[in-house]
Inverse folding.
């Protein structure tokens, strides 16, 4: 299958399927075997084929959630969404974030102070060029869905504190009932 993601996306490794996390930490002898083992031994509750994920998510969300791309800032309308409600994983519908902990920042991704309990997992990821100099040549903490492993975004220190910086294309917003 040949895919041609838009130029606004940059190629990123998805650790769960590529083993990139193990390669990233290979220079750390104490932790390398622990990280590699935990990544490869973990089985997500929701597992689907590439074709099934593509059919469900569409090209853009597939590139972000299953291949680790980052969306262009402000490309998702959710970045400035302020209504009450809940944010769910687009891959498996797990309730990942609550609007009460959402923060609108001009950087243009979807920011939260916290995730819901037991909703996300974290891993070591590389730099994200879209973020600019803030993360150049540094490793980042990746945030992904606990249930399906879908890549959601990263933990960043921004606006005076640690935030979950999430791709809107990885989320489905469910407004609170009026
Ligand atoms: Zn999920």
């Amino acid at each position: 299958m040949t895919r041609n993601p838009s130029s606004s996306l940059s190629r990123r490794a998805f650790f769960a399927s590529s083993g990139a996390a193990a390669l990233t930490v290979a220079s750390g002898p104490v932790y390398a075997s622990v990280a590699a083992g935990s990544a490869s031994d973990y089985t997500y509750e929701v597992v689907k084929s590439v074709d099934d994920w593509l059919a469900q998510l569409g090209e853009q969300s597939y590139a972000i959630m299953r291949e680790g791309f980052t969306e262009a800032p402000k490309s998702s309308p959710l970045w400035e969404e302020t209504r009450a409600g809940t944010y769910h994983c687009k891959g498996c519908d797990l309730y990942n974030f609550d609007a009460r902990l959402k923060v609108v920042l001009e950087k243009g991704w979807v920011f939260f102070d916290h995730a819901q309990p037991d909703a996300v997992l974290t891993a070591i990821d590389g730099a994200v060029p879209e973020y600019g100099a803030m993360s150049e040549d540094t490793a980042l903490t990746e945030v992904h869905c606990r249930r399906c492993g879908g890549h959601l975004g990263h933990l960043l220190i921004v606006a005076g504190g640690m935030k979950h910086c999430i791709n809107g294309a990885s989320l489905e917003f469910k407004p609170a009932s009026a």
Q: What stands out?
A: The mean pLDDT is 82. Strands lie at 85-89, 95-98, 102-103, 110-112, 120-125, 140-145, 151-158, 161-166, 171-175. The chain has four helices and nine strands.
